[in-house]
Amino acid sequence: MDSQTFLAEAASLSRSCTVYKQDGMGTPSAFWHGVEPGLCLSILHDKQWLNVVLGDDSSGGTVETGSQASESDIRLYAQPETSLPPVDAIFFRGTDAVDDYLRHYEWPRDEPFNDNFPDSIPVEYDRYWRTKCPLYRPGISLVSGGWHIPWPDGDWYEFADAELIACTFLDSEPWVEIFKANGRYVVKQRVT
User: Where on the tree of life does the source sit, at the highest rank (predicted)?
Assistant: First the structure.
């Protein structure tokens, strides 16, 4: 596999997402409250407002639905973008060509990518991915949809089929992720 083939795999796995910024016009699509225990985020999703409340134990939180937002002074405005997959997603969801590539290096599809991978192509792609990932770009307050970030705690695969409702970048750490999986919301607080 060469770099161009790896990029083609990434392009085929790209997903639509929405980034939220504080600069914008019109009606806000989200409101930021902070990362202290209590109300963290209000975001419009599927025509209803989701109010994300963080718990005291810094491990998660809850999502309350409603017809109105809990407003704050920090208004966030939505802009559509494309979310490139992280290396873990390419390894896990790539075509048979990726499977052959991983088999050549004796690397299981569900093994998280790390510095031990014996070829430079994923390393080069990871550098490129970081230039596009909202976590590493200034001015983005949160993202909804697209691919979630492989955090060091290693549960990326657990949420591979879940919908990413939001991942926050303001006032981090913790970063807060909200997933919808099997009809229920899951809130994760991430500290690295």
Answer: Bacteria
- Pairing, β 30-32 against β 74-83: antiparallel
- Do 17 and 146 meet the contact criterion of CB atoms below 8 Å apart? yes
Number of structural domains the chain divides into: 1
Task: Write down how long the chain is.
Answer: 192
Nearest Cα neighbor of 133 from 180, 121, 125 is 125
Distance CA 91, CA 71 (A): 40
pLDDT tens-digit series, residues 153-163: 778 999 999 99
- What is the pTM (predicted TM-score) of this model? 0.90
DSSP H helical ranges for 14-95: 87-93
Residue range 44-76, pLDDT digits in tens: 999 999 999 998 877 789 999 999 889 999 999
CA distance 78 to 64: 21
pLDDT of residue 154: 78
- List the one residue out of 180, 147, 182 whose CA is nearest residue 48: 180
Question: To which H or E segment does residue 48 belong?
Answer: strand 48-54
